[in-house]
Amino acid sequence: MEPRTTPQVGGMGHSMKRKEDPRLIRGKGNFVDDIQLPGMLYLDIVRSPFAHAKIKSINAERALKVPGVLAVITGETLAKYNLHWMPTLMSDTQMVLPTEKVMYQAQEVAGVIATDRYAAADGVEAVEVDYDPLPVVVDPFKALEPGAPVLRTDKKDKKDNRIFHWEVGDKAGTDRAFAAADVVVKQDLYIPRIHVSSIETCGCIADFDRVEGKLTVYMTTQAPHAIRTVFALVAGHVGLSEEKIRIVSPDIGGGFGGKVPVYPGYVIAVAASVVLGKPVKWIEDRMENLQADSFARDYHIKAELAAKKDGTMTALRIKTLADHGYADAAANPSKFPAGLFSICTGSYDFKNAFAEVDGVYTNKPPGGIAYRCSFRVTEAVHTIERMTDVLAQELKTDPAELRLKNFIPAEKFPYKSALGWSYDSGNYSAALKKAMEMIGYDALRKEQAERRKRGELMGIGISSFTEIVGAGPSKHFDILGIKMFDSCEIRIHPTGKAIARFGTKSQGQGHETTYAQIVAEELGIPAAHVEVEEGDTDTAPYGLGTYASRSTPVAGAAGAMAARKIRDKAKKIAAHLLEVSEDDLVWEPGKFSVKGAPQRAKTIQEIAFAAYTNHPQGMEAGLEAVSYYDPPNLTFPFGSYICVVDIDRGTGEVKIRRFVAVDDCGNIINPMIVDGQIHGGLTMGLAPALFEEISYDENGNIQGGSFMDYLLPTAMETPSWETDKTVTPSPHHPLGAKGVGESATVGAPPAIVNAVVDALSHLGVRHIDIPITPEKVWRILKDKGVAE
Ligand code: CDP
Question: CB–CB of 104/361 below 8 Å?
């Protein structure tokens, strides 16, 4: 799409430099830990060394003698106010602090409040907790076996460890299609626990003003409004009423889904501030963040794909065990316990599909968050893109050809999937063909054949993913009953400058820039003159926040709709000023002019001034509007990625030689920002494919609980990404835009795995679970007798 506005106005399609960057790159950002309040106290947390244990006693005597320590808060303290348990966003319950037993290693056991951070840490060391270890359940399959210890003894009627069973699709029809299939391939896949590892850990400052009875919490949250409501619902009975709660999300250093849940530390800090009447700061350290905050993934998948001899895919059947840890603390919309996993039919025209997911409790930290992924879409995409390659291998077909044969054809959109989604728009073969051309696919296949003859291991992997973002139509999507719309309020000042406030919250995605560009696009006011504000519940309109790439599809749309309301009023004012009928006016970005007499015009700035100085009699003064946007559907971005790898036969190391990513997120607001989103997303896709995993030993001890063991990719490990795009607008979004933030994280891992398996397929290798570490590959090479 060619930009409709000039670069000076900076509407859609301009790679405008980010308005937030001068602040951030000069170290002038304002993150929670930058905020210092007079008289502020510090919270540090005692954590459990055991994964499952009874608490026999907590002795705070020694801790209270540490200089600077003022108080120790335990579950018993909170239980007096009935605040020791809280709801999770999935309507499960989670401990704030335990009164009876701990359920995972690193669980919060007590809070120590002191005059400085170091005194609080010394106090934590001095708290004496007497534990009585209990049997630990780590393996989710064993958790479901008869006789397994029931973990949630707090739930009176709970007789086992199953959280939910969820299924979707036509089981009988799918079974019939499998029975009639020429070819059936089956594969087990494990998608391990991983962690978002954002640069900034979680934290807050709770500041209770005893005189006003007002609680202000500066906190690292992606969803400040929802958090305010949760606080009001949970603590209303102790006098915290919603109008007296203000949540402020200042600058946030990465969220990726990990800053959606309410962590116990937030609640303990609030309780401490209310009790002590002083501001209380809590900032997690890196290991606490990695060990105790919500994790992502942990899906054990059994997948089956049925096809005809000619490669036509006919049916998909998936059975999954989801390990949720000790509480279901995912942030999925409430009707979707397995998130949007039912996007697992992907980019392919399946007539039949059936998927089922069982959620299970184990002695691990709670979660199942949407880590840079729209609620389990990464798991779904990994499954279908791996299965497509497994089928190609079985049929001895080229995986690109198999994809092109089975793609939903461009003319079939809007497309109703076998599992019930209505895909808005797509052109999958255009994206794959573009990626194939960019990378020189045919030549690479020839090169691979030659290298194979020389015993060299080179692989080419494809992922042609379909995403589903922008939750959501409020008819189906809510979190704790709060509908998933989003909002924007725009005020135009008399001199034609504007402030736009949104219900979302950027964590680095560049909303201050792109939202200003949306207003510029719709009103012709230069983006430089549009101030964007998010994250303060006292000023921003109510919204559900930023996660799962919903900002552009939902709040961005609200921005366009609010701007259009303003344009409607501006038209009336222009008609008044120009003394013509509204029907005689034409709009071009920035001004209304009279049809046939373009020199007779009023700019949006002149109209804004008139809105306060010379508006028509009978019309309200001012120029502002608010929109609460309820999207009619989700948006379905997509892309095709191709990865080329070389494998070292001596070490098993996988080297990514090239990686081409062709993305389609409909119309683009800021191409530079989208490119940045994709670069970051690809690196976050590389990470679980090759490096990252959190695992536990049989006693529930975390392995990978520090960055010594949990390997994040650095610039050294990251290849040079080659990106391009196709543009297939969303037909229902007011700007034709789709979300993009998570596409690359969702799409990249299977491209990498497919490339590695492709390099080893002639040795009989069909699947490798992520992360594909050099050790795993080397063992395979040794097994196959090709290790050097
Ligand atoms: O919800 P979140 O901001 O994480 O995801 P998003 O809506 O996909 O947007 C990520 C960033 O890319 C935002 O700054 C968007 O405005 C920008 N974007 C864009 O410029 N054009 C699109 N079609 C989609 C996103």
Answer: no
